Amino acid sequence: MIRVLLVDDQALVRGGFRMILRAELDIEVVGESADGSQAVAAVSALKPHVVLMDVRMPVLDGIEATRRILGGDSGARVLILTTFDLDEHVYAALEAGASGFLLKDISPEQLAEAVRVVAGGDALLAPSVTRRLIGQFARRQAPPDASARLSSLTERELEVLRQLARGLSNQEIAQALFVSETTVKTHVAHVLDKLDLRDRVQAVIFAYEAHLVEPAG
Fold first, then answer.
1. DSSP-assigned letters across all residues of the chain
2. What CDD domains does the database record attribute to this sequence (predicted)?
3. Would the pLDDT of 208 be above 90?
């Protein structure tokens, strides 16, 4: 059972999320918080697997709350949900360690699936923000150790990283490279381990910062 904490300063929004997620047999809403400060305390007390976190809240905003939660040892993963897709929110959320960033206009089915993806250790970004996001990261100066880190990867692992950065799922990468999905998962795990990255989102960011791939058009 996936334990979820809902964090939003609007009771109506929390109620909507609660209703959606409680309809799922594998998801349990274990608590709610109205601001980031409450969320930090609730994570410690309730031990959720996933925190659905709003950005703009009183007392303590969602970005700082995310930073504090992930700076501890709770093991919780944070999925940012917001009505805003402003770039500074995306950057700040990812740099704080969030595993995903979604807009609140997603469907109930997409919300439940996002919780499952993040709980499973993966990461995701709303398609509506990904293009601008990667463009911004691609314009950054490459990390000084990027070449050395990339040199630790095999040719096949480099190709998997390129495909990851283009937004392909494991299934799509498997089809593109004519290998099994299990093999792709193994390659992805090796890439994250060798590059010392937390998840797919960090892998995508690194690939663009290192100029392994460039934004299309």
1. -EEEEEE-S-HHHHHHHHHHHHTSTTEEEEEEESSHHHHHHHHHHH--SEEEE-SS-SSS-HHHHHHHHHHTTS--EEEEEES---HHHHHHHHHHT-SEEEETTS-HHHHHHHHHHHHTT--EE-HHHHHHHHHHHHTSPPPTTHHHHHTTS-HHHHHHHHHHHTT--HHHHHHHHTS-HHHHHHHHHHHHHHHT-SSHHHHHHHHHHTTSS----
2. LuxR_C_like (cd06170), REC_NarL-like (cd17535)
3. no
HSE toward the beta carbon, residue 125, CA cutoff 13 A = 28
> What's the pLDDT band for 4 if we cut at 50, 70, 90?
very high
Burial of 207: CB neighbours in 10 Å, binned 0-12, 13-18, 19+: buried
Q: What is the average per-residue pLDDT within 58-82?
A: 89
- State pTM to two decimals: 0.76
Alpha-carbon torsion 80, 81, 85, 89, what sign?
negative
Lowest mean pLDDT among 2-6, 87-91, 114-118, 120-124: 87-91
What is the sign of the dihedral through the CA atoms of 55, 61, 66 and 67? positive
**Is residue 163 a contact partner of residue 157, using CB atoms and an 8 Å limit?**
no
Q: Comparing C-alpha atoms, which of 28, 111, 36 is closest to residue 66?
A: 36
Q: How many CB atoms lie within 10 A of CB 178?
A: 7
Pick from 126, 138, 151: which is nearest to 213 by CA?
A: 138
pLDDT computed for residue 134 by the predictor = 64
